[in-house]
Amino acid sequence: MAEKIRDLKKNIRLWVQMIFAAVTNGYAAGFLKGKIYTGPWKNLCVPGLSCYSCPGALGSCPIGALQAVLGSRNYRVSFYLLGFFMVIGAMFGRFVCGWLCPFGLVQDLLHRIPVPFKRKNLPGHRVLVRIKYVILAVFVILLPIAVTDFLGQGQPWFCKYICPSGTLLAGIPLVLSNLSLRSAVGWLFRWKVLILFFCVAGAVFYYRPFCKYLCPLGAVYGLLNPIAFYRYEIDAEKCTGCGRCREACGMDLCVRDEANSRECIRCGACLRACRQSAIRRCGPQTRQKGRTT
Fold first, then answer.
1. For residue 216, how many other CB atoms are within 10 A of its CB?
2. Quick one: the chain helix, strand, coil %, rounded to 5?
3. What is the pTM of this model?
4. Domain coordinates of the chain in residue numbers?
5. In which band, very low, low, confident or very high, does the pLDDT at 78 lie, cut at 50, 70 and 90?
6. DSSP string of 72-109, one letter each residue
7. Overall CATH class of domain 231-292
């Protein structure tokens, strides 16, 4: 019984990821008909990446929505989106990346494939982790505002030229189910399939390369990670400095010194690895209790 409970705890994140992906991308009629759901739920954003054009998507991607607002000739700011990012980021930080993002689930499943020479990070990791912040600033914010057509309309640069999640969940299903789209496939679709290929192939050998190096949504949540209500705390009296937490951490963090790093996706691997129970989850109530005792 104890072993079954341990297995359940070990796989609970995977079950949450699969259930959330099924709920937010489970519009079966869209896949069957090759059409995009455009009902009222599409006016709402989901926490993780969820391409608007995915046939099964019931909600909108916050990064896609942000680009649409910034690129519009009529709107430059959306209080809904600002509030969404602030509330979700301040509450959970990159917990969303670890538990609620469908493309994070894809990478986790790919990384389970048994192959030799697995590594946590790509060469040049410390420099590469900054790329996602550049992508956020340039492709998500600056280009949609600054580069416009003759009507004053900007483009969703990240979605159009980079996002592998959109290619996997939206582009490929639509092309496969729609003959007219298949005949119109050009260099842009092939370019995005190439990006997707490197991301999914890389995920087999390296842990979550897209999350670490390219994802602008992870960058947004990462900036709020150090101050998020949901966070980790280290009990210095219990910690022995054994290093098991870092060994277990797929993001390759020294958890003892970086418990609330911008790169932590709150997967919980470090908590399970710590034999001293020196790491604990901490919400606002726990933090308040700690200050008053």
1. 27
2. 60, 5, 35
3. 0.90
4. 12-225, 231-292
5. confident
6. -SS-S--HHHHHHHHHHHHHHTTHHHHHT-HHHHHHHH
7. alpha beta
